[in-house]
Amino acid sequence: MRLTLSTLPSLLAVSAKLLCLLMVVICGAVPSMVRSVRLYNDCSGSQVRVDMRGRVLADDVDTPDRFRNMTIRSLDFSVKLTIFAEESKRFLCFNQKWKLVGSKRFRGEMCQFYENMVQNGYNRFRSVADGTRYMGFNRRGKPLRGTATPHNPKCLNFIKLDQKFDILSHNMRMAAGMYNESTDPVSRRTGYGKSKGFPERRTTPRIRHKNHHRKFVK
């Protein structure tokens, strides 16, 4: 086809259609983004778990760690994601009363979240069905209803941890002052430590000599 002013619009239209088809093919070939993590809630100080009954909690109850393993999946680089409890085989979803539950069945947007990063590297998970509702837990580890506005915004904050990360050992090291801020994963993300003004613990005791202030008598 000879390129003229009269044929230019039709050629541009064909090129646009081919470009759209190419984008569809590329998106269909893109694999889903999957990551296995544990979700540490800043308010309860514990990791999220989903039991076989579908209860979602973030408490310190002595349960096998495998119930705290979550798979975060986003399809085709979409900003929407799902959170799936691997052991109990349940999706994290909001029910009709906007309570966080573990559902065996995927319920569309009620089981989808947007992930937002906030100050100090924390993540928040906002419902796709209603952008005003967030996933969160109170200090006792019970899920906040989506309609509730927490007095403490920390209750909406999460840290995505590797499944091999031992939060109990981390807390013990922090309490004993035996941590290195440059290598600790939580200190790097939350800013806790020297940057928050916490005093450094001395690793060696100070030795006071008995005769330090005595005058020498001949």
UniProtKB/TrEMBL annotation:
It holds the Pfam family FGF. One of its GO terms (molecular function) is growth factor activity. Residues 204-218 have a biased composition (Basic residues). InterPro entries: Fibroblast_GF_fam (IPR002209), IL1/FGF (IPR008996). CDD domains: beta-trefoil_FGF8-like. Belongs to the heparin-binding growth factors family. This is Fibroblast growth factor 17.
